[in-house]
Automatic annotation (TrEMBL):
This is DUF445 domain-containing protein. The chain crosses the membrane at residues 6-22, 29-49, 213-234. The keyword Protein transport does not apply. It holds the Pfam family DUF445. Keywords: Membrane, Transmembrane, Transmembrane helix. PANTHER family: DUF445 DOMAIN-CONTAINING PROTEIN (PTHR38568:SF1), DUF445 DOMAIN-CONTAINING PROTEIN-RELATED (PTHR38568). The lineage of its organism: Bacteria, Pseudomonadati, Pseudomonadota, Gammaproteobacteria, Vibrionales. The keyword Transmembrane helix applies. InterPro entries: DUF445. It comes from Photobacterium frigidiphilum. It comes from the Bacteria.
Length: 236
């Protein structure tokens, strides 16, 4: 993202300088509006992950890390570990408990509600108003598939923990005791989630979507430049 943003800002600034030095109003307006659009979008993306002194609403991702943790737990307990999924899993794996693998179950679960919940948290925050000016929820839709893939990988990693597997193995001979199995799994998830910090949550989400957010800066510069040209033609 940083490369896309830097290149876009440099190009738009060069166009602005060329227009100013050559006294070409259309070129200058194009560069000015492109630079302002790219810079504004870059700042908005930066404010998602970092707290900026004096800018209310910045740092929304780390500030909402408790909501993020709660969302992961709710997702796993209400989507993955329903009675139907546990019964199906135990039936399939009963013959070979030493090779427990719930990755096929994870791949079949629809993670779209998780992404939608993250978007809702962002839009309901003080950052939502600024995001509306950049295209609102639609601007973040290209990030949906990368986010879902990263979530699947993260959940798969948790399911491969030895403690997680041992908990299932210990209970696999008593598949009817769903409540006890679910409680054990919930305790393990709580323990793992309690190890998360705001910094870790921020880094997780950055790795998921930051590279794709760079395009917001590019399009901010492009549309800003177009608006600048139109403005110059109108005022000419």
């Amino acid at each position: 993202m940083s490369n896309k943003s830097l290149i876009t800002n440099i190009i738009s600034l060069l166009i602005l300088l060329i227009g100013y030095l050559t006294n070409q109003q259309i070129v200058m307006f194009c560069g000015l509006f492109a630079f302002s659009g790219a810079l504004t979008n870059w700042l908005a993306i930066h404010m998602l992950f970092e707290k900026v002194p004096g800018l209310y609403g910045s740092g929304v991702i780390p500030a909402r890390f408790e909501d993020f943790k709660s969302g992961i737990k709710t997702l796993m307990m209400e989507q993955f570990f329903t009675k139907e999924n546990v019964d199906r899993f135990l039936s399939n794996e009963m013959a070979s408990p030493a090779q427990l693998d719930i990755k096929p179950v994870i791949e079949k679960v629809d993670l779209s509600p998780t992404f939608d919940s993250l978007i809702e948290v962002i839009m309901n925050s003080s950052f939502g108003g600024m995001l509306v000016m950049m295209g609102g929820e639609e601007a973040l839709q290209p990030l949906k598939q990368p986010f879902i893939e990263k979530m699947q990988n993260a959940i798969s990693d948790i399911s491969q923990q030895d403690a997680f597997k041992e908990a299932l193995k210990d209970q696999i001979e008593q598949p009817a005791m769903f409540d006890e199995i679910r409680s054990t799994i919930e305790d393990i998830i709580d323990q793992r989630l309690n190890e998360l910090t705001p910094q870790l949550v921020k880094e997780m989400i950055q790795k998921m979507i930051a590279a794709h957010l760079g395009w917001l800066v590019i399009w901010g510069g492009v549309f800003g430049g177009i608006i600048g040209i139109i403005s110059a033609l109108i005022t000419a």
